[in-house]
């Protein structure tokens, strides 16, 4: 049928013992001390075991939503036989918190950028076992994530009682679609920050359909019951946005595909990755830190400098010294389109880069509040 694989909704229910549980039926012999009651979590659930060892199914992509409605939460702990990937719900929650400027998440955010080795490395899994996402069919869309502090689910007919209450969203200063120009600019910047984060994180990025053009559900975070424009992909809106956020998403996706270091089969080590703070080699993992930066050795691009400033204050960042080379700006989410991504085809590219020259000559780069950047190392023609 040419099916690549399967994502199992609320897959943790498949790891619980059923009312028909009988070790003799499953394994052919009794298990010592087997006193399981209905719903008990099994260390070797038979259905997951059989799927994982099936000659056909074991060769396709198997993805678990590693929690269920009964409160079982198994992100990083789902029985995997080395095959199963997981919707990384912790990635979603940490990235949302850090990018909206919540204290206490810089270290956890760094783990997310590395493919969550804290969750998967010890169990022998790889970065691709982490399905990274910021938004999905449940919850806010990307544009709603930066537009609403609260859910607006009245259209569902349940008096706004349905849907998730803890969205880790931020409306950037005003609730709802109608907002000031400055708020709307900040919202677009935050959307670019989220998408850039997805594209530079180790693991598998998952993008919710419509987020690439800014699909809104009006703040409704539980739209399963709607067969209308709320859930439909708006191709006309995509065309309207093609010169703005859609362009940014396309270029960032292309950049990830071209970069050898952004889809690794193993977790990055110190030989490839270095952490930085406002100064090179001095990362700040304190409770109040809202700045994370790293350099990545890349066999195709040479070396990348990636930084996130999620503070409400701007900062001038000191860049790592690379004698004979200079850092060249590629992505800056604080800039309006098309200067948010300085691709080679941009007619004004050289002029835009020249505006940074006095900073880059001194090995510095100015970052606005709530922004992220990607710089690439290039030969210094002046040297």
TrEMBL record:
Residues 274-375 form the Isoamylase 1-3-like C-terminal domain. It holds the Pfam family ISOA1-3_C. It comes from the Eukaryota. Gene3D superfamilies: Glycosidases, Golgi alpha-mannosidase II. InterPro entries: GH, Glyco_hydro_b, ISOA1-3-like_C. This is Isoamylase 1-3-like C-terminal domain-containing protein.
């Amino acid at each position: 049928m040419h099916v690549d694989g399967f994502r199992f909704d609320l897959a943790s229910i498949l790891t619980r013992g059923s009312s028909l549980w009988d070790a003799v039926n499953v394994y052919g012999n009794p298990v010592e001390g087997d006193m399981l009651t209905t719903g008990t979590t099994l260390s070797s659930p038979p259905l997951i075991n059989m799927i994982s060892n099936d000659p056909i199914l074991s060769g396709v992509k198997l993805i678990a939503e590693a929690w269920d409605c009964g409160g079982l939460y198994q992100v990083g702990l789902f029985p995997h036989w080395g095959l199963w990937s997981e919707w990384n719900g912790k990635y979603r929650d940490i990235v949302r918190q850090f990018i909206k400027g919540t204290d206490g998440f810089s270290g956890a955010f760094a783990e997310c950028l590395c493919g969550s080795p804290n969750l998967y490395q010890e169990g022998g899994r790889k970065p691709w076992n982490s399905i990274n996402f910021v938004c999905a069919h449940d919850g806010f869309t990307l544009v709603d994530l930066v537009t609403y502090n609260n859910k607006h689910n009245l259209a569902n007919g349940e008096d706004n009682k349905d849907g998730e209450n803890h969205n880790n969203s931020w409306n950037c200063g005003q609730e709802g679609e109608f907002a000031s120009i400055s708020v709307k600019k900040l919202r677009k910047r935050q959307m670019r920050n989220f998408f850039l984060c997805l594209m530079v994180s180790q693991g598998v990025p998952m993008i919710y359909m419509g987020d690439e053009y800014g699909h809104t559900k009006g703040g409704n975070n539980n739209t399963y019951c709607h067969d209308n424009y709320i859930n439909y992909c708006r191709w006309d809106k995509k065309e309207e946005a093609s010169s703005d956020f859609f362009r940014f998403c396309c270029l960032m996706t292309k950049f990830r595909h071209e970069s050898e270091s952004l889809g690794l089969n193993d977790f990055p080590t110190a030989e490839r990755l270095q952490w930085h703070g406002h100064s090179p080699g001095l990362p700040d993992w304190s409770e109040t830190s809202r700045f994370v930066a790293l350099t990545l050795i890349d066999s195709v691009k040479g070396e990348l400098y990636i930084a996130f400033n999620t503070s409400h204050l701007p900062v001038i960042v000191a860049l790592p010294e690379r004698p004979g080379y200079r850092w060249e700006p590629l992505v800056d989410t604080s800039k309006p389109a098309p200067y948010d991504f300085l691709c080679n085809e941009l007619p004004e590219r050289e002029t835009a880069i020249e505006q940074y020259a006095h900073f880059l000559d001194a090995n510095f780069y100015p970052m606005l509040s709530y922004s992220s950047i990607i710089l690439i190392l290039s030969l210094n023609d002046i040297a």
